[in-house]
Amino acid sequence: MRRRAVLATAILAAVATPGIARAADPGPSVTKKSTTQLDAQAVYFVSYDGLVNNNSFQKNGLLTYKGYQYAAWYTSTKYAVVARRVLGATTWSTITLSHQLKSDDSHNVISMGVSRVDGRLHLNMDSHSDGFFYVKSVAGLLDNPASTAWTSAVLGAVQTSLDGVALTSQFTYPQFIATPEGGLQLSYRVGISGNGRNALAEYDGSAWTALGEWSASTGTYTSTHGSSTARNMYLHGIDYDVNGRLHSFFTWREQSAAVMCNSGGITNHDTGYVYSTDRGRSWRNDAGTVVGTTGSSDTVAVTDAGLVVDSLNPDHSLMNQESQTTDSAGLPHAIISYVPGRFGQCTTNYVTDRTANGRAFHVRKNASGTWQKTEIPIALNSSQRTKLVLDKYDNAYAVLPYGRIAAASKASGYSDWALLYDGSDLNAFGEVVIDELRVKADNVLSFMYQEKSSGTTPSALHVVDFALPA
């Protein structure tokens, strides 16, 4: 303790004394703190090369709010469960909902959100191009967790609308986003893969409102192989920064396989970027030009100029719905992954080729407004996705498939990517679910993962915590 006190005094003196430089911010580091078990036998089946309890596009399957952490998953009997614990505790308290997973489809994830304006927990679950299921807790549940019994009574009935707002019969990919004012928005897709549109709904503490669709599925995209006239925009995320700007990276997926060199690939192409300064009512390209208005006939389309920040044709098995975040200055960062051209210019089986030769890349906008891309020099060894978080010093951490953690320092301009943790003691299946809010709460990188199994044999579901630089 005395050494820490002396060090703290020295740092304060350096800051306060003219002519003495302030100590440099620390680089990235991870120290494993603990692992807790959520469920000894969580549901297990592989579809679309993923698990329903651990899919990258959950926002959020794990979250922290006011000193408590919350998790949601499906049990071996396919019932939906919500659990909570005090941060740092070793045991979780669970509530089993009346809803059962309706099919073995890994897209039918559970996503959670918090409306700060009334302290409610919201859940949206079990949807893939069909109807969704929604739960809204009692008001104040998350504001006073220590004095509120964790029983089914605090969670409302399972609904098939947002308090009467039906949205669409072709609903997929729920993502809750807390607004700067304390409300809550729900991002989702209308339609199907290759022919869908992104849309938003909004909760103000009293009612839900459908804001409408903001991306288009129409227009013609032409590659060197052929053309497609329908598609959908897959989001890498949707996040507010510290200044209240809403950011979204995305990739397009074409409906027609004619755009590919080989039918065994995947029609995803290009990394695009848009932002909104009016809570998602209108959308701008990187140059600041409005390219779409939510709920109107003029939505963001593949033919709009200035959307692409990293160009890539459909022949490299570019992954959709990877990861994004924003830094302390409000600058956007993303992870994308594909098979680089040095391994060939035509993937013929996107799972096999990504597993053999896939690489992840860090894409970011720097302070001068220039886009930069850095390859993370670690083989994916998986077809699956990587998650991105930044610590309080804006060092970057990529949580690769199997729970491996690579990192790069802000001081290096994110050029020094290296593996910090190999994940070998986890026995993780592949993708993990990050607690995006935990890092901001107490400098802990916390993620949910499920152990490898086979067939439909249930396996253990865990949360592991890593201390980041204080």
Briefly characterize the structure.
With 470 residues, the chain is mostly beta strands.
Secondary structure: elements and pairs:
Blueprint (H helix, E strand, L loop, with lengths): L1 H15 L14 E12 L19 E4 L2 E7 L4 E8 L6 E8 L9 E6 L4 E6 L7 E4 L34 E8 L5 E9 L2 E9 L4 E6 L7 E2 L4 E2 L2 E5 L3 E2 L5 E9 L13 E9 L5 E3 L5 E4 L14 E3 L12 E4 L5 E7 L11 H8 L1 E7 L5 E5 L11 E4 L5 E5 L3 E5 L9 E4 L11 E2 L1 H7 L1 E7 L8 E9 L3
Antiparallel strand pairs: 1-32, 2-3, 3-4, 4-5, 6-7, 7-8, 9-10, 10-11, 11-12, 13-14, 15-17, 16-17, 17-18, 18-21, 19-20, 22-23, 23-24, 24-25, 26-27, 27-28, 28-29, 30-31, 31-32
Q: What does this 3D model show about the protein?
A:
With about 475 residues, this protein is mostly beta strands. About 5% of the residues lie in helices and about 40% in strands. It is built from three helices and 32 strands. The chain has helices at about 1-15, 350-355, 435-440, and strands at about 30-40, 60-65, 70-75, 80-85, 95-100, 110-115, 120-125, 135, 170-180, 185-190, 195-205, 210-215, 220, 225-230, 230-235, 240, 245-255, 270-275, 280-285, 290-295, 310, 325, 330-340, 360-365, 370-375, 385-390, 395-400, 405-410, 420, 435, 445-450, 460-465. Strands 15, 16, 17, 18 and 21 form a five-stranded antiparallel β-sheet that branches. A hairpin with a 4-residue loop joins strand 3 (about 70-75) and strand 4 (about 80-85). The longest helix is centred in the N-terminal third of the chain and has 15 residues, at about 1-15. The chain is globular, with a radius of gyration of 22 Å. The protein starts with a helix and ends with a strand. The relative contact order is 0.14. Mean pLDDT is about 95; it is low at about 1-20.
